Amino acid sequence: MPIQNNRLSHEELVHNFSDIHPPFEHEEGAIIEANRCINCYDAPCTKSCPTSIDVPMFIKQIASGNVKGSAKTILSSNIMGAGCSKVCPVEKLCEGSCVYNLLEEEPISIAKLQRYSTEKAIANNWKLFERKASNGKKVAVIGAGPAGLSCAHTLSLQGIDVTVYEKEEKGGGLMTYGVAAYKVTPTFCKEEVDYITSVGGIDIKYKQELGKDITLADLQKQYDAVFLGIGVGIARELEIPGEEMDGVVDAISFIYNLRTNDYSKIAVGDKVAVIGMGMTAIDAATQSKRLGAKEVTMIYRRTENEKPCTDVELDIAKLDGCSFIWLAAPKEVKGENGKVKQLVCSKMKLGEPDASGRRAPVDTGELFTIDVDMVIKAAGQIPFEDLVSKSSLQNKGGKIAIAASGETNIKGVFAGGDAVNGGKEVVDAVQAGKNGAKGILTYLGIK
Amino acid sequence: MANLESTFLGIKSPNPFWLASAPPTDKKINVMRAFEAGWGGVVWKTLGSQVKNVSSRYSTLDYNGQKVVGFNNIELISDRPLDINLREIKEVIREFPDRAMIVSLMADNNREAWHDMVKKTMDTGAHGIELNFGCPHGMVERGMGASVGQDPEIAKMVVEWVMEVAKIPVITKLTPNVHSVVPAAQAVIAGGTNGLSLINTIQSVTGIDLDTLVPNPNVGGQSVFGGYCGPAVKPIALKFLTTLAQDSITKKVPISGIGGISTWKDAAEFMLLGASNVQVCTAAMHYGFRIVRDMCDGLNNWMDEKGYKTIDDFVGLSVPKVTRWEELDINYHITAKIDQDACIHCGLCYIACEDTSHQSIDIVRGNPYNTYTIKEEECVGCNLCKIVCPVKDCITMEEHRKGPENINWIEWQKRGLPLNDH
Ligand SMILES: Cc1cc2nc3c(=O)[nH]c(=O)nc-3n(C[C@H](O)[C@H](O)[C@H](O)COP(=O)(O)OP(=O)(O)OC[C@H]3O[C@@H](n4cnc5c(N)ncnc54)[C@H](O)[C@@H]3O)c2cc1C
Ligand SMILES: Cc1cc2nc3c(=O)[nH]c(=O)nc-3n(C[C@H](O)[C@H](O)[C@H](O)COP(=O)(O)O)c2cc1C
Ligand code: SF4
Hints:
Helix content of chain B: 25-40%
CATH superfamily of the largest domain in chain B: Aldolase class I
Helix content of chain A: 25-40%
Number of domains of chain B: 2
Number of strands of chain A: 15
Number of helices of chain B: 13
Structural class of chain B: alpha/beta
CATH superfamily of the largest domain in chain A: FAD/NAD(P)-binding domain
CATH topology of the largest domain in chain A: FAD/NAD(P)-binding domain
Oligomer: heterodimer
Number of strands of chain B: 18
Distance between the termini of chain B: 51 Å
CATH topology of the largest domain in chain B: TIM Barrel
Bound molecules: flavin-adenine dinucleotide, flavin mononucleotide, iron/sulfur cluster
Mean pLDDT of chain B: 96
Low-confidence stretches of chain A: none
Largest sheet of chain B: 8 strands, parallel, barrel
Largest sheet of chain A: 5 strands, parallel
């Protein structure tokens, strides 16, 4: 069977894409877990959260029965606290540093508790924030992803009228279009965006693309400041022969399709090779498997020790039945009639540490070939270098350069999130949005 | 294997665990089940004048997810017909001759009523009588229960009435709703009681429903002060017990210890402070009669480890260790020490000491883990850090005497030694 959709029944697909981290079913469960937290002082969990959520405080608020206060504690540090509770790699953030780890005990289920409070906030539409009266200042935010929304929310609270320009037809950025479908549903993403904008003062204009429908110069004229939260683009090219063949796809587009269509419409191969070992690669591999691919092989240039994804993510791929070829780099895609048939790889070995501090892969020259009918490229994403350079923004390979204030080389133009860091987590983008907002407020002389 | 057998005023039971007079002991089916589960004896639910109960009746204090830290009730004495109770008591004694059967009594406030109750109780074959001078609600308003126990003269008079006819041992159960239990205890001993038991429940309000604003328990929109018991009252009970164990008159009679006993450890503590046996109510109401198995097993293992062959080997051993403040050695000094390998960096010791004690813990901030060390010269040895530390033996208290000599407060003043050094 070649690349094909509808490999599984509706029931199987629903099962495969159901919530990977189910919530507390009962209040009692949340309270038992909340009481397990020992309420650390200067808590390691808080310090390990990029948005510095006061974790012990929100947990103890659940325990005391002040769930509304708990939601406010979370959301005032991280307005996407609900989404983050589902998508954050907590094993390397808050939960990873919970002191229970040092007792060789399960850390507190911080994410699950965070989900408990924030889901209630969204479901009940709790009005936790009040916006200051409009002060007449106007700011344009480009991109309705985590960075843009977090920036917009922070600014709006201070009485600024924010207009968000978003090229897609939905908000949420990669939360809506990128994150694995078994972590967040489209409905949830929409509800989260609506909840954030319900504070008022945020007008999102969809299907408005910077560089196409609008220009930075125009925005600078119309607004007192601009924030760029445009994220990064599609997956990096492999730059190998055969890459143009039918069956070679970019992970970002593959996942975009998956997130915007019915699962039954998404085609996968019998034998899928995924290039890369980051979060995107894992998501591409696991979701291919969950769509019904028979064999999914992940190919990575280094060893398991150097992998960019976390152990927890790798475990998901392992449990989904993916296989792994470590120390291998793709060299050529071979096919018949323009359709992928084989992938030729080089065997690699580890050399001296590179700039990232990890040992660099070195080609041994030895080749091997595997039979595949689909290749998914997930070896990093490419920043919007064209757009950024054309707008005269100082950048590094498309990654926008900013000062500590979040300001770019252009006065009054700020940036943050994946567009600046080249691609990290949602929670980093949320913090970057807050930082940018702070810079803008200072720039505008507010607060 | 240690011998758990207990003899209290000549009344034998296979172990020192009795069920206190309360709902667990108010009818044949309960008591039969209790004896099947292994309880050494029971004090039958208080019998006396006819009453009428209300609903609801119970409420609790819960803390940090732990239910029933304290338990509160507004129930009265037995609300079952007297003749049924007496018949059932007789039947249970026949079925379980090796267990202790004590009957709790609270008669109307006159000699005839008490005589009548005592005689009827003896007719059942019960091994002893417990006089309920402690119930703090419902009966008090009628001049019974705690209102008897709170007035030594009245208490003595009632005991004298009882002793005029009693031919089986009489235990007087004291109320803790007094400043000191010693005067009432001395009075009832003067009146002839053979033994004492304590504590009965402490008057309380456990909390308020923040929606209805009615305190718990809610009886049709109103509440009353109830009687408090369960784990939270143990420290208060132990204190009252110690005062009896140390008083020259009251220490002469055996004491049955009651109040917040949930485990063998609690029981051992009561006995170390002078109780010859113990009674349990709340723990059984929370978990059922099966808890007695570990009570026996745990006590047995502890006695084996300590080399105690019988209960009497350790009853009262801690009594002399409780002294008066002015006799404590002021030169004894300990300071805290944190085991850095065991430390999990929760910072609870630091914030407790910094905010509320003597600012004696040093902090070096790290990411994500801070390092905490004791400033030995500042530490007053209060135990607070050790108490809040979640890791066993991570914080230890080490002895650093201020001087070789044992100097107490009396001596300290006599010598005019310096004060207020902190
Ligand atoms: C496959 C995949 C899985 C991931 N899984 C996780 C995960 O599980 N957990 C996690 O924490 N992170 C995950 N991430 C990373 C996370 O999604 C991003 O770090 C985060 O979304 C970055 O937020 P952002 O706002 O900077 O950018 P984005 O989320 O990319 O948002 C940018 C927004 O700007 C819009 N935009 C772009 N260009 C223009 C333009 N020219 N004009 C107008 N609008 C424009 C985009 O349409 C988008 O809505 C994943 C990423 C990928 C690719
Ligand atoms: C619901 C309830 C009813 C009680 N009724 C009586 C009683 O009738 N007579 C009595 O002497 N004590 C009564 N008590 C007090 C108990 O016998 C016991 O002294 C007290 O509960 C302390 O023990 P504990 O902490 O193990 O519960 C009652 C206690 C409870 C909880
Ligand atoms: S580190 Fe763990 S125990 Fe400490 S406050 Fe955070 S969640 Fe609670």
